[in-house]
Write the structure tokens for this entry.
Amino acid sequence: MTATHTRTAEPAAPTDRKTTYREAMRDAMREALRTDERVFLMGEDVGRYGGCFGVSLGLLEEFGPERIRDAPLSESAFVGAGIGAALAGLRPIVEIMTVNFSLLALDQILNNAATLLHMSGGQLPVPIVIRMTTGAGRQLAAQHSHSLEGWYAHIPGLRVLAPATLTDARYMLAPALADPDPVLIFEHGSLYNVSGDLPADAGPVDIDHAAVRRPGTDVSLITYGGSLPKALAAADDLASGAISAEVVDLRTLRPLDDATIGDSVARTHRAVVVDEGWRTGSLAAEISARLTEQHFYDLDAPVERVCSAEVPMPYARRLEEAALPQVDGIVVAARRAVGEPAPTGADEAERRPATEGSG
């Protein structure tokens, strides 16, 4: 009698999944809510409306009003309530519509969330995650377009994250919720509609280190958040002119990953820092200072900075575009760093020295 063998089909390998930045953030919150009963979401319009930017759409129907809490229009009140919930052992995710409105809760964030662990001698950790939309480029004028990440990165006791990719949007939340310290997540408004393939093997992600998004040998483009796509586009442009640009995504703005930044500059010997914040007192200024302190002898040229013009953000589209860092300006700064002339026909605004305007 001849034996017969049935061949068992091997399970199909997981495939990449098409998603958007917005959906990735939503999936991250959904996973957190499902896996930890201590997690809840609170903020203005996060429930019935689905979030001002649609990030929490559908979560109220799935988890109910105890876990998805619509808050009154008082940032100080609901951020304070979130801090109290964290002190009581819960894991709140607090959404503030835009970074501008977070200033109404700055006392709670700075004087309470960031200081209680220290002032209590290590007895009162505040494991709260505060999410907020940041950045310009959407014609929302001066009161809804700030990039204040650098302000918050100035505060000891906070961890400040700026997810710029689909993978980081999807997987940064879990380690943020596991952190015993307060974590601020800045989501650039221009990224919500960005779509792409989320790798099947993505996650978990590291919130302690920057990431080299593109290797290069001639100049380091150092950036974060909504400026990452511009830096990558500038690197493509520079490559057409035989300039190899390395792109470093900071990802975590406090604490800054000095080692990854420094290693990149040690390879390329030139740096361009792209920061949507204002130049004066900016993250770009801090990074430039650290490079000068720690890598002075690695630098073959002064550190270039491409920042927003030091004006309230204009409403008119052309003026807003002129005020923000743009690809052409990054290319000009990189060419200046490597000692090459700007491309023929570059706008005069892009030829300005680093001490003027938006660089």
